[in-house]
C-alpha cells in the first residue's frame, strides 16, 4: 500500500518578548517566500487568536493555512514543557495541506527565557527589537544565546530610540559566540533578503537530512553586576528523538 503519511515539514519556531515583532516577522517571511515554498502558520496566545487574525487580515497566506492555539497557560509552557496542543496543531496542518515545506510556530510573548522544545520545532528564531533597549542583547538567556538565529528587529526605529544598531549587533554576536545575528527592518529589502536566504538555507539542510535540531538548554552564560560570569546547569539533560 502507498505511504499516506503527510510530508514532514521544517518546523520553525519564532519566540521573543512581547512587542518585539514576532507576528510581523512571520508576515515578512510569508511575503518573501509564499510564491516559492509551501507555508503554514501556528500562532500561540493565552486567551485569544489575535495574532492569527492579524496574519489572516494581512493576507500573507490563505486564511486556512493560519491556525491559532489558545494555550490557556504561560506561553513558555506551551512551547517547551507540554507541547501537546502545538504538536497536534502542526501535524493537523501538515495533514490538511500536504505537502508543506515550512510551518512557522509563533510563541506567545514571553520573557528572555522562552525557548522551544526540539520535540516541537527543528530550528528557532529569537526576536529582540531596538525599542527594548540597546543593552538587552547583553542580558543573556537561552534564546539570545543559542537560538539558531537572533533577529534584532525594527532597526529603522533606532534613531528615534537612541540605539546604536551596530553596537547592539556586536553585543549580540559576542553573547552568541559568533552564532548568526540579523539586523532586520521589514521596510529594507536587503535585510528581508537576508532573512529569506537564511530560511531557505535551513530548509535545504532539513530536506537533505543535514539539519539537527538543537536544544538551547539551560540559561546561557551571562554576567552580573559583580562582573563575574555565571552559568546555570541542569542536573538532568534531556534528549529528544525525531521521526523523519
Describe this structure in words.
This protein has 244 residues and is α/β, with parallel strands linked by helices. It contains eight helices and nine strands. It has helices spanning 22-33, 50-58, 75-81, 84-96, 142-146, 158-161, 165-175, 189-207, and strands at 10-15, 39-45, 66-70, 102-106, 123-129, 149-153, 181-183, 222-223, 229-230. The strands form two sheets. It has a seven-stranded parallel β-sheet with strand order 3-2-4-1-5-6-7, sandwiched between helices. It has a two-stranded antiparallel sheet with strand order 8-9. Helix 1 crosses helix 8 (189-207). The longest helix has 19 residues, at 189-207. The model is unreliable at 219-227 and 229-244 (pLDDT under 50).
Query: Please, how many helices?
Result: 8
Order of strands across the biggest sheet? 3-2-4-1-5-6-7
**Gap from first CA to last CA:** 19 Å
Strand content: 15-25%
Shape: globular
Low-confidence stretches: 219-227, 229-244
Mean pLDDT across the residues is: 88
Q: Cα-atom Rg, whole angstroms?
A: 17 Å
Count all strands and give the number. Answer: 9
* Oligomerization: single chain
Order of helices and strands: EHEHEHHEEHEHHEHEE
Indicate the structural class. Answer: alpha/beta
Helix share of residues?
25-40%
Characterize the largest beta sheet: strand count, sense, and whether it forms a barrel: 7 strands, parallel
Amino acid at each position: 500500500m502507498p505511504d499516506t503519511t503527510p510530508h514532514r515539514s521544517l518546523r520553525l519556531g519564532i519566540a521573543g518578548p512581547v512587542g518585539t515583532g514576532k507576528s510581523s516577522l512571520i508576515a515578512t517571511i510569508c511575503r518573501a517566500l509564499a510564491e516559492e515554498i509551501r507555508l503554514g502558520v501556528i500562532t500561540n496566545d493565552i486567551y485569544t487568536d489575535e495574532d492569527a487574525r492579524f496574519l489572516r487580515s494581512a493576507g500573507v497566506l490563505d486564511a486556512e493555512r493560519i491556525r491559532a492555539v489558545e494555550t490557556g497557560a504561560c506561553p513558555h509552557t506551551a512551547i517547551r514543557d507540554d507541547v501537546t496542543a502545538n504538536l497536534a496543531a502542526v501535524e493537523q496542518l501538515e495533514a490538511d495541506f500536504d505537502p508543506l515545506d515550512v510551518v512557522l510556530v509563533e510563541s506567545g510573548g514571553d520573557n528572555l527565557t522562552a525557548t522551544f522544545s526540539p520535540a516541537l520545532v527543528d530550528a528557532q528564531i529569537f526576536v529582540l527589537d531596538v525599542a527594548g533597549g540597546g543593552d538587552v542583547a547583553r542580558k543573556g538567556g537561552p534564546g539570545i544565546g543559542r537560538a539558531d538565529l537572533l533577529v534584532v528587529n525594527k532597526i529603522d526605529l533606532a534613531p528615534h530610540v537612541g540605539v546604536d544598531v551596530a553596537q547592539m549587533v556586536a553585543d549580540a554576536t559576542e553573547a552568541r559566540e559568533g552564532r548568526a545575528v540579523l539586523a532586520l527592518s521589514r521596510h529594507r529589502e536587503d535585510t528581508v533578503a537576508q532573512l529569506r536566504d537564511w530560511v531557505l538555507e535551513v530548509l535545504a539542510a532539513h530536506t537533505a537530512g543535514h539539519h539537527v535540531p538543537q536544544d538551547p538548554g539551560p540559561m546561557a552564560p551571562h554576567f552580573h553586576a559583580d562582573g563575574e560570569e555565571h552559568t546555570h546547569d541542569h542536573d538532568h539533560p534531556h534528549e529528544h528523538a525525531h521521526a523523519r
